[in-house]
Design a protein that fits this description.
This protein has 2 domains: about 5-50; about 50-110, no CATH class. It is mainly alpha-helical. The chain is extended and about 50 Å long. The chain has 5 helices and no strands. Keywords: Membrane. InterPro entries: Dynamin_N, EHD_N, G_DYNAMIN_dom, P-loop_NTPase, TRAFAC_Dynamin-like_GTPase. One of its GO terms (cellular component) is endomembrane system.
């Protein structure tokens, strides 16, 4: 197993603490009130361990693309910044070994 840095160990401790709180405090309340019937199923460890997803929405020309570029520290494939609205599509920016663009329709029909 790869060695963890001190920060990664700290993150793992926090995640495990959140899981424990959910399992021991929140989940019993969800079960008693049958929360999963009217809202969503009880959470699993995989949902706590998964990488977070962030959704950016807003009017055109308010800095959504610029914000993503700032977070990444560089540009990304398919970015378009212009004075006029550039809201003709949506994008999913994800981590990978190489930069590439995948058409939206391919993502909707992927198994």
């Amino acid at each position: 197993m790869a060695s963890f840095t001190e920060a990664e160990r700290g993150h793992q401790i926090v995640i495990e603490g959140i899981k424990d709180i959910y399992r021991n405090t929140v989940r019993p309340i969800e079960a008693a009130t049958k929360f999963d019937i009217f809202h969503s199923n009880m959470l699993t460890d995989a949902e706590f361990d998964a990488a977070p997803m962030v959704l950016l929405v807003g009017p055109y020309s308010v800095g959504k693309t610029s914000f993503i570029k700032y977070i990444l520290g560089r540009g990304f494939p398919g970015e378009r910044i212009g004075p006029e609205p550039t809201t003709d599509r949506f994008m999913a920016v994800m981590y990978g070994d190489q930069d590439k663009t995948v058409p939206g329709n391919a993502l909707t029909v992927a198994p």
